[in-house]
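A reminder from the course coordinator: this example appears on the midterm review sheet, so study it carefully.

Given structure:
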């Protein structure tokens, strides 16, 4: 059985929702088949305190920024945390930081390889919103795996979780045993692994790492919270392992292009998702090529013919 995905009602855009004693969420109006209802920006703080952290301020969107500032009210933003530099996550950090004087925290700039995602491909394009990165974002404070961020009444541990993108971080909120998973783990959908910066092996390694941790709740940037997350994470791992096996089986007898593989493997999936599926198959093939299982003619590209070695 594949992963059992979650759904939620479309939220009222611009309205702040209290989702736990310490956490509120505002969803930006940037819905798409890759962002679900839109970017969920989280505001975290002790209700009795006066300081807040904000995770993923979101895209450039005046209405969203205004709603965010209204929700912050007279309190002080002490930290702006960025999970990664896709354009639905980090661009509003600049304005929010200027207005609130809060420093931004992130793994680093947008990776150069990620700007090459899906370029020059034969119609096998990825998500238009995931395609171009936020190359403007430079964190005031660079953080990495295991770094601890302490504010008034809240403590975060940063987890470096490359796979979806090499600068991806998750943030664990100690006080609520909650992991803010960005795009690494989403309840409503699988994540995309856009080549060449996205890396399936890293992604799987960083899914398995989560199984050794004790957070009880995940809050992704898109979609609803995930309770009892370990079975779901396991199902994501199994889903990718099964997909890899399907691809290898499909290539056993004859070389195939990504388009042919998508038509074969995703026959039950709506055609509008085949482009994204091509990106996913490419991620699996690159991973198999790195492991010496498959090779490609004339080169490791989206237009190549792939074959099991
Ligand atoms: Zn992303």
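Designed residues:
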């Amino acid at each position: 059985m594949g992963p059992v995905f979650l759904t939620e009602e479309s939220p009222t855009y611009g309205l702040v929702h209290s989702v736990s004693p310490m956490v509120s969420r505002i969803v930006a109006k940037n819905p798409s088949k890759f962002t679900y209802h839109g970017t969920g920006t989280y505001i975290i703080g002790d209700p009795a305190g006066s300081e807040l952290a904000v995770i993923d301020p979101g895209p450039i969107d005046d209405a969203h920024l205004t709603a965010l500032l209204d929700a912050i009210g007279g309190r002080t933003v002490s930290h702006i945390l960025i999970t990664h530099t896709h354009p639905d996550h980090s661009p509003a950090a600049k304005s929010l930081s200027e207005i609130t004087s809060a420093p931004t925290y992130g793994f680093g700039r947008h990776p150069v390889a990620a700007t090459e995602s899906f370029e020059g491909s034969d119609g096998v394009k990825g998500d238009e919103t995931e395609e171009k990165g936020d190359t403007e974002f430079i964190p005031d404070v660079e953080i990495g795996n295991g770094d601890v961020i302490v504010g008034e009444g809240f403590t975060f541990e940063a987890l470096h979780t490359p796979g979806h993108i090499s600068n991806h971080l998750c943030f664990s909120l100690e006080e609520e045993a909650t992991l803010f998973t960005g795009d690494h783990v989403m309840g409503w959908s699988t994540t995309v692994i856009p080549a060449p910066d996205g890396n399936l092996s890293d992604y799987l390694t960083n899914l398995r790492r989560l199984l050794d941790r004790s957070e009880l709740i995940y809050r992704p940037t898109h979609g609803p919270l995930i309770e009892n997350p370990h079975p779901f994470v396991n199902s994501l791992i199994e889903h990718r392992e099964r997909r890899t096996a399907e691809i290898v089986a499909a290539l056993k007898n004859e070389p195939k292009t990504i388009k042919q593989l998508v038509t074969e493997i995703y026959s039950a999936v709506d055609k509008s998702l085949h482009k994204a599926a091509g990106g996913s198959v490419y991620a699996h093939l690159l991973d198999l090529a790195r492991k010496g299982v498959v090779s490609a003619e004339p080169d490791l590209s989206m237009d190549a013919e792939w074959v099991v070695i």
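The domain at 239-308 is CATH 1.10.10.10 (Arc Repressor Mutant, subunit A). The longest helix spans residues 229-250.
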